[in-house]
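Entry 14. Structure prediction run on the chain below.
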Amino acid sequence: MSWDERRIHLIGIGGAGMSGLAWAANQLGAEVSGSDRSESSYTERLRSAGVSIAIGHDAGNLPAGAEVVISTAIPEDNPELVAAREQGNPVRHRSELLAELCSTRRQIAVAGTHGKTTTTGMLTFALRELGGDPGFFIGGELPGFGPEGGAANSGWGEGEWVLIEADESDGSFLTLDPEIAVITNIEMDHHARWENLTQLRDAFNDFASKARVVVVPAADSELIASLEAPDRKIVPFDVNQPGPDELDLSVPGAHNRLNARAAIGALTEAGFPQEDAVRALRGFTGVKRRQEFKGECEGARVYDDYAHHPTEVEAALNAFREFDPDRLIAVFQPHLYSRTKIFSQQFGAALALADEIVVLDVYPAREEPVGPLEGVSGLDVLRAAADRAGGRPAYWAPDLDSAERIVRSRAADGAVIATIGAGDITKLSDRLVSA
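Output returned:
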């Protein structure tokens, strides 16, 4: 069946991954609709392209005969999913639609616990600078790639390549068939899906073993050894390779220099001269919510970052230090009770890199604080941070309102304020710079 003969309904269409699929299917000619709990920047973009979106989940939202696409986050009792199963509508996981869309292009897929959004963004930006017109699917918004120069998390160009942020959180990256696979790093993060690090590493191995080229951290000798094969090329990267000694990037942080090295490796193996790839990457200014400059508050510079794992928080704060602020104020909102329970001490250690610390309560997302998660709180992170802060200020702000009051009282010329987390803390950065 051709795309213009298909009707596709996405439950949870407002999320980063699902909205990207909706955009691509719509661009290819399918009749696309969807629903979500609330509006987002993604729903605005889709509506402008003619996609019908309902806010709130209701069986009446389901078009007759439509293919229904869901993510792992959609529960079985969702009324639209229930109706789809009762009526016999085909129901597919989002990974199946992504694999179908990408099967018509040469694929570069970027996986890893940290850095995959930025690395995919770097590749997308550089490939366009090099004259390509790639398709892309990113778990964040890339400025300048949307309509009228706005931001976009997906696109469907006319070039031969498609660039994919490959998600390990629910194992969906295993449906992809990349020609070039990039693995930025491997750490435990999604404990509800992976029982242990061995199981997770096996999954990354399965993901990469399909590729003819694999770009991997040079330090991960175990992964390199497991992937070596006569018909597969291994490209190692570290802070010094591949590429020249100096990269002169527009984005700060050692972690971004590593991301760029991985991108250079992938672009070179895709057939682009290394010096051209390096030059193209110098113009990359970042993905939204990754060290994104939002404006000023009482003379302080305000940045917003999506970091939600201790390693990411540490990397972000070290990057902000490169701006040489008089004071670095970290405002952190833990994401998920399960992650907070496991990593509260590590979060505290990472946050202690700041001069002042503000911690909000947990953003629950899909979880409830019941059973083994009962009693888990952002206070656990605050206590761990205060223990390591050496007497530096550490504040409890259970909600956005209290956080705003505290941060405004501490803002001053020369300071950097970093709002950090994967929940709705990004709204705080908007508030701080709005008045």
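The domain at 3-93 is CATH 3.40.50.720 (Rossmann fold).
Filed with the rest of this week's runs.
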